[in-house]
Amino acid sequence: MQAFKLTLVAAAVASALPLSAQAADTLFDNFTPLTSSAGPTANEAAPITLSSPNFTQVSIADRNNHLAQGQGDSGSWDMITANETGLDAGRYLFMPYETATGGVQRIDLWDTNYNTRTTTIVAPGTQNFVAGDASRWTPWGTYLTAEESWSDPAETASQYGRLFEVTNPTTAGVDGGDFVHRKIGPADIRVSHEGLAFDKNNNFYFIDERNDSHIFKFTSSNPNATNGADFFGAGLTSVLRVGDGTVQEATGNYNWIALTDLAGAALAGTVVKTDPNGLTVLDGRATPNVGAFLGTDFDRPEDLEIHTLANGDEVLYVATTTNHNVFALNLDKDEINLFASRNTKDLATGNAVGNGLSNPDNLAVDSEGNIYIIEDRNGGVDDDIWFAKDLNHDGDLLDEGEGLGRWASNGTPGSEFTGLYFDKFDPNTAYVNIQHPSSGNDRTMKINAVPVPGAVWMFGSALLGMMGLRRRKA
Fold it and tell me: Does 462 map to a domain?
């Protein structure tokens, strides 16, 4: 029977040529695109159908285990980043809880004990932090997160939409994180946050996550600051306007429209409110709809990632969920183009990907600059991660042989993939969260491109996918 299984695997591998790795230092781009999404998994500790028999998965943390250690954990583990600089760089993963009480946790990748490696460093309920979503390591070596929450436009104020910094992320003990509300400039612009990104000049980008909303930039007066107080203390906040700003999700030339002066004070005519704590804030949702400050509407912008093209241009990628698009803002040419959509070629079929691409939410970049698109969909039904094959790294998928390939699929019912993060120090390791499953047991999965003894693989080529085979690799 075992020989028969191995023959089946070999036949499946031979049935289609895999995508060739674009460089030797990562193997994540060497796979055969999945032809369909995964069905429900029988084992939540191995929830991912992977697109190569060389990829393996292993659970490195789960919520039930964390709660059993007596720590606060409100669940819905969201976006992931690591300590990318400083002492012990790459040792820790950080993620917030996207719940009504929030919180932040840290996973110690060097701790071989499953029971002790996860630590809640910001307790749920701290500073009324809610809906933690964003995760980004700062240029000065701290951790940023933010709230995916903002008041109804009819309300006069909100305590939400805040940016927070953990100033001691690697050293904090249980509930010991120094959790500081960082105003984005003196105007303290408030939005429903998700993606955060820094470019090579340390301009800071963020979005307001809802329909008919906007993309923003903060240019610090002190871009090389060594702490968050100095970086965010003063600077210009602006909103993206493409063309004249009247066309939704327009492409072409763009400008950044100032909402504040250079020091960060709100300009006359912007919408200013007072939050329940008595703080004066700039309404980042209402202001870009005012004539002089008109920004281009995007339907539910979410995650942001920055990548440098082969010609040296820096590009900000933006996922917009409602219309199933990913845009590319060339930061050197001041031009925005559509990068991926339902019209992009599906590498498994040669046809347009169509409804196969639904609700692009998160984005990730591997060591070779390949872009990955993570869907906000239903685990066990149609929740997938797509690989964007940009062969010449020119920021589009229009050249021969380019398109989207289904790279992984999530089988945990009630959940979604979130926070895909490629290890900056190991090009063949990545991490992803299985968020808000029906079981309530959120989980962080480690994916390796090189087989690891004892890890689990689920290979979803056309043949094996049809037969529903799932095997453990010895």
Answer: yes
- 418 domain-assigned: no
Token representation of residue 458: 């689920």
Domain of 459? Answer: 30-55+303-411+455-468
The answer to whether position 310 is within a domain reads: yes
CB neighbour burial string for 415-440, b if at least 16 within 10 angstroms, e if fewer: bbbbbbbbbbeebbbbbbbbbbbebe
Distance of alpha carbon 250 from alpha carbon 254, whole angstroms: 9
Question: Could you report the per-residue pLDDT of 229-264, keeping only the tens digit for each?
Answer: 999 999 999 999 999 999 999 999 999 999 999 999
pTM (2 decimals)?
Answer: 0.91
Number of domains in the chain: 1
In angstroms, the CA 1 to CA 8 distance is 11
Q: Which two tokens stand for residue 195?
A: 């993606």
Instruction: Return the closest-CA partner of residue 31 out of 440, 414, 459.
Output: 459
**Alpha carbons 400 and 256: distance in angstroms, whole number:** 34
- Does any domain span residue 319? yes
Q: What is the pLDDT of residues 438-461, one digit of tens each?
A: 999 999 999 999 988 778 876 543
